[in-house]
Amino acid sequence: MVSDGHETDGGSADQVLTSLGYKPELMRTRSTFQVAFMSFVLASVPYGLATTLYYPLVCGGPVDIIWGWVAVSLIIICVAASLGEITSVYPTAGGVYFQSFMLAPESYRRLAAWITGWLYAVGNITITLSVNFATALFLVGCVNVFQTPDGQNVLEGSAYQVFLIFLGITLLCNLTFAIFWTFIGVIAILITVLVVAKNGRHSGAYVFGHFEVNSGWVPGWSFFVGLLHAAYATSSTGMIISMCEEVRAPATQVPKAMVLTILFNLAAGLLTLIPLVFVLPDIQELILLAQPVPAIVLSAVGNSGGAFALLIPLLVLGVICGIGCTTATSRCIYAFSRDGAIPGSKWWKVVHPKLDVPLNAMMLSMVIQIALGLIYFGSNAAFNAFSGVGVIALTAAYSAPIVVSMIEGRRTVATGSFFLGKIGWACNVVSVGASSPILGIARVSPALTLS
């Protein structure tokens, strides 16, 4: 691999890391394919879009679902390209907080790094938490495609049931480090619902042009609030940067993986959403459910057993997504602790000598997530809060190094192997300009009732 003098293999990548002031401790065993796969898993778009479909259904219907996804994906491509330019110069597990430190003027670089680092750490933890919680809620929805003879759900979905499911998923994600899963099952869902479509199919005009507001907000604002669906599914874009110190040529592999993954995710998202909207049941009934996708699949297939079987791939994909987020979060905490920014850093910066992973950092993240999960006993809007905080923190963290790079005239990124020139300027402007609306959207997410 050639990277214009930055690094061509693990050895020279370690030299770059050493020049940045860090001792190489993690094994560089991940190939370009593995980086791209990891980045794709972090997003797990079919799963992410399936578990948060409630938002656009309430806020705008089909138009919000389809065109909202396209709009946010195009913005996130700009974010990925902007972060890719910076990562090609500073490929460390510290990610955006280290990049903010290096790019900012000396007078406030420590403050910039400290704020960005905590936003990044909180974002990593809460997004991982929301992924695992969403999987728990989605599992309840999947089980309830089965009904008792009197038409009641077979699983009540009480707070303690959801929490115990969430606890089991969180423990599983922290005990499992790598799982490969085929997306054939997801494709099977899409083909089956379109072919069977027991209750018929909508017209193309409905799928791509029907706009229906049930949120209580004015149409324009409601549409933007519905974009949280897409913002949540793409919020993990920059988390892959935390894997830089396990990649053979991070200055080239990681930026390319980030950008290409968004393009693949855009296509995968449309492949997931369009068939579901074609067989969408009455929206007024769907918005009464926390997880509408199981009901959509059941309506299309007309058989509880068949619907549950088709939903299993999404459940497994949710667990895989949780594993990916857990892995990236542990590296984020490890890197932040390595710089002494987290209380008890001497414990969390340790790399397990046999497992070659920052196990203590992983356990810290797990304990915090479980503790925060207890909030669900007091509020059924907890998931909304978790996902909202995660999107807010990560969006702000991604914006920080981009803003600092623009302030310094992009002189530093011009030395990198992923420099995009004038296109990079345009990507920076779009990334920063779109961050404020996304932050505003995420802030109002707890106002939506999703339980």
TrEMBL record:
Keywords: Membrane, Transmembrane, Transmembrane helix, Transport. One of its GO terms (biological process) is amino acid transport. Its main location: membrane. One of its GO terms (cellular component) is membrane. It holds the Pfam family AA_permease_2. It is a multi-pass membrane protein. The chain crosses the membrane at residues 33-54, 66-90, 111-140, 160-193, 257-280, 307-336, 357-377, 383-407, 419-442. One of its GO terms (molecular function) is transmembrane transporter activity. This is Amino acid permease/ SLC12A domain-containing protein. InterPro entries: AA/rel_permease1 (IPR002293), Amino_acid_permease_CS (IPR004840). Signal peptide: none annotated. PANTHER family: AMINO-ACID PERMEASE BAT1, TRANSPORTER, PUTATIVE (EUROFUNG)-RELATED. It is found in: Membrane.
